Amino acid sequence: MEDCYNSKKEGNSFIVKKILIVLLSFMMLTLAFGCKKEEEKLIAYSKGGITVQLPEGLTEDDYAGYAAAYSNDDFAIEAYVEPFSVLRAFDYDLDTFTLEEYGKEWLKINDMNTQFVKDSNNNLYVTYTEDIDGVSNFFYVTIREGSEGYWNISFSTLAENAETYTKLFEKYSDTIVVE
Prior knowledge:
- This protein has helices spanning 2-34, 84-89, 99-109, 162-173; strands at residues 42-47, 50-55, 59-60, 68-71, 76-83, 117-118, 124-132, 135-145, 149-158, 177-178.
- It is α+β, with helices and mostly antiparallel strands.
- The strands form 2 sheets. The chain has a 7-stranded antiparallel beta sheet with strand order 3-4-5-9-8-7-6.
- The longest helix is centred in the N-terminal third of the chain and has 33 residues, at 2-34.
- 17% of the residues are buried.
């Protein structure tokens, strides 16, 4: 009788081990494949001649001279247009003046020793860090040509978040449509 009890006990322990192995395997697969971060949902924000896809929950800001501005606790975006009429008043020949040349002029006016480069989608952008009121900020600036002027769209976040936000800003930048 005792032998029968021991063999049942060993049999039960074998079954429990098998069940544990199956459960652990399932848990590992779930962690590896089932717990992917949900894709960030983007929605269209449109104002003043610019539309851009950004995360839900941004607050619309109102800054003098800007066509559009939005922010949350993590980043901000501001956009303004440099009208062709203003550039003509400064004797720029708009028949030959290109977006690349506008970018060079923008950098010169802002006393920046860098250059615009193309992202993976051929959008011109420049990044830089600037201290404002003792806080180090990271900026991702992209430029576009619209029907009425050149657009300057500036994304910003704390400098410590630059690595995370550079790819996100490029992603958001690729959704920009200007009039």
